[in-house]
Design brief:
Layout (H helix, E strand, L loop, with lengths): L2 E6 L5 E7 L6 E6 L10 H11 L3 E6 L17 H15 L4 E7 L1 H12 L1 H7 E7 L15 H19 L8 H6 L1 H8 L6 H13 L2 H6 L1 H6 L3 H5 L6 E6 L7 H10 L3 E6 L6 H4 L1 H17 L12
Parallel strand pairs: 3-4, 3-5, 5-6, 6-7, 7-8
Antiparallel strand pairs: 1-2, 2-4
Helix pairs in contact: 1-14, 2-3, 3-4
């Protein structure tokens, strides 16, 4: 049975959280969604993990601040640094003990890296495995939208300018009529060769629930983040990275650099797939999650935890 929970953060933001499995499960898997999306983007993985592990694994997905059913926030907090702090707070409240596997898609993967950077003691004490799905540790370094470098620079300039305008629109949501008109563009940007119409509808619904402040506000932080050094310091954690070879936002070089920085990473490149791998290639994503969870479950239980220092 799925629990509907809420985490209230120190600045008053309320995060919508959904969890299945017992609090004292052997491992807790935390699934973090991408920019403008929400926890529903992991629905195929949620179903697979429940079926595969039952009560052995607690599965948690939450909507980031300004996204989905979580509340809006002050513009100054629309940063990856804040999302890293939010993740630490969610772990303390929702999964206060036991081993953690973190899986992040796009902005969610960047959130995991920011958490590791800002809270190294907390991370080292809790995290036992990582799964990176269509994400990057290098901001927009490799983002070319599948176009020529000159056109990509023009698109990035327009995108950055537009993001600044949207960021000042507060808690308003994108008009649904506009999003329906933009479905062909969403399909081109986010998906590869094959796309289920139901997935387009889900993504469009998620964008419709994201505040304009979050759509615009996080753009600068996402484009500027560089955390390869953070990954290189994580040691021998079981890890996986997946990318589609048609991904226009985080193309294969993004995942390749993650795997190079964290050599324990099992790299999977999905032919014909775009940015939404959890929907486009659920079997591959499920298998990667299972592989990291199996290694975590097979490892000896850690010694009793001491107080965590961030």
């Amino acid at each position: 049975m799925t629990e509907q929970l809420e985490v209230r953060l120190p600045d008053g933001v309320r995060l919508h959280v959904e969890a299945t499995g017992p609090v004292d499960a052997e491992v807790t898997a935390i699934l973090l969604h991408g920019w403008t999306l929400d926890g529903r983007s992991w629905h195929r993985q949620l179903a697979d993990l429940r079926s595969r592990y039952g009560d052995r694994v607690r599965v948690v997905a939450y909507d980031a601040r300004g996204h989905g059913r979580s509340s809006c926030m002050a513009l100054r907090t629309a940063t990856l640094a804040q999302l890293g702090d939010d993740l630490a707070a969610v772990l303390d409240e929702i999964a206060p003990a036991g081993r953690i596997v973190l899986a992040g898609h796009s902005m969610g993967g960047m959130t995991v890296m920011e958490y590791a950077h800002r809270h190294p003691g907390h991370f080292a004490a809790r995290v036992a495995g990582l799964v990176f799905v269509a994400t990057t540790a290098e901001g927009h370094t490799h983002t070319a939208y599948g176009l020529s470098p000159r056109i990509a620079r023009l698109i990035r300039l327009a995108e950055t300018t537009g993001a600044g305008v949207l960021a000042r629109c507060g808690s308003w949501r994108p008009p649904r009529a506009l999003l329906r008109a933009l479905r062909p563009s969403i399909r081109w940007m986010l998906f590869g060769d094959r796309c289920d119409p139901a997935d387009i509808r889900l993504v469009t619904s998620a964008v419709a629930h994201a505040s304009l402040r979050s759509i615009g506000g996080f753009r600068a932080s996402i484009g500027a983040q560089h955390r390869l050094d953070t990954l290189a310091a994580l040691g021998d954690l079981p890890a996986a990275a997946l990318v589609g070879d048609r991904d226009r936002l985080t193309p294969p070089p993004c995942a390749e650099s993650i795997a190079a920085a964290l050599p324990t990473t099992e790299l999977t490149v999905c032919p014909g797939a775009g940015h939404m791998l959890m929907m486009e290639r659920p079997d591959e994503v499920n298998a990667a999650l299972a592989a990291v969870l199996e290694q975590t479950l097979a490892a000896p239980a850690p010694a009793p935890e001491r107080p965590i220092a961030s």
